[in-house]
Design goal:
By secondary structure, the protein is an alpha/beta fold. The protein has eleven helices and eleven strands. Strand 6 (about 100-105), helix 4 and strand 7 form a beta-alpha-beta unit. The chain is globular and about 55 Å long.
Length: about 290
């Protein structure tokens, strides 16, 4: 862990990263790619020590209320968050200033902040996005070794459902020859439907590999699935988009089942929903004098 002072905290689309780097150890992590110019070890977490002050200043000077997002580059609920509490401080500010909030995570640590998520959702809109890749618990521990398992994330989705907080699932990535089966997709979809998720984001049945994350991914394949790296290299070479041989059938299955169950499955529609701020009417209670 190391601390830095940042010049700004919100992107042009109102996203923020309180930390840079991660300890989840997901074997397919795109954030390891060279194009993101992370100048430190990925596991050496960079903490933006002035992030909360910057966020409050940004919220104070926003002309219009909007959705504030986090988690696109680094899962904010890394173990360090439970010590530093930057996300919880940010949530308190977002609630105080009346903004909406959305987060992408794989961690059940988000339940620590359920009270604030509910408060934000009562006043504006709060949407929690959870990544699901495999219904197989043992495979999950290989693909995403240092974070909540699929069963634990499913439990989070159900708790958020019961708390009235809308959820979106990222069905991604689906790794060729590993988790690209109808059984896996069907089981994950069953979980989503039971948890009554608002939408499921899927960019295709496959993954992307860029310089930086490709090398890391292949090292993990050598360690966990001997011989599979050579199969990838023969089939895909150095392609950026790595599509499953079952891509078409699995995508048809995905869209058909989402349509049948009334779950959003058009990515553009879901992103529009995530980016749209909603201010809910406040219920005014009559005092005794008004009755």
């Amino acid at each position: 862990m190391h601390f830095v002072k940042s010049k700004g905290i919100l992107s042009a689309k109102n996203g923020m990263n309180l930390y840079r780097g991660c300890l989840h150890g997901c074997i397919y992590c795109d954030s390891r790619s060279n194009c993101y110019h992370m100048e430190h070890d990925f596991e050496d977490i960079e903490v933006k020590e002035n992030a909360i002050e910057l966020l409050e200043h940004a919220l104070q000077h926003k002309r219009k209320k909007c959705m504030i997002g986090t988690g696109s580059m680094t899962d904010p609920y890394i173990p360090l968050e439970m010590e530093l509490g930057y996300v919880r401080k940010a949530l308190s500010l977002i609630y105080e200033y009346g903004f909406g909030f959305t987060v992408i995570t794989k961690s059940n640590c988000i339940l620590r902040d359920l009270d604030l998520l509910q408060k934000i959702n009562e006043r504006a809109k709060c949407v929690v996005q959870i990544t699901l890749t495999t219904a197989d618990e043992e495979l999950c521990k290989k693909l995403e070794p240092n974070v909540s398992t699929t069963t634990e994330r499913f439990d989070v989705l159900k708790k958020l459902r019961d708390a009235g907080i809308p959820t979106v699932v990222w069905l991604s990535p689906i790794l060729p020859f590993i988790n690209d089966t109808e059984e896996n997709i069907n089981t994950i979809l069953d979980m989503c439907f039971e948890a009554k998720v608002k939408g499921i984001i899927c960019f295709g049945m496959g993954l992307t590999l860029r310089d930086g994350n490709r090398e890391y991914f292949y090292r993990q394949l050598d360690r966990l699935f001997p011989g599979l790296k050579e199969q990838y290299i023969r089939r895909y070479g150095k392609q950026y988009e790595i599509a499953s041989p079952n891509h078409s059938n699995l995508m048809n299955l995905f869209h058909k089942r989402c349509e049948q169950n009334g779950v959003m499955h058009n990515n553009d529609e879901i992103f529009e929903y995530l980016q749209t701020f909603e201010e809910k009417e406040q219920v005014q209670q009559l005092s005794l004098w008004d009755m």
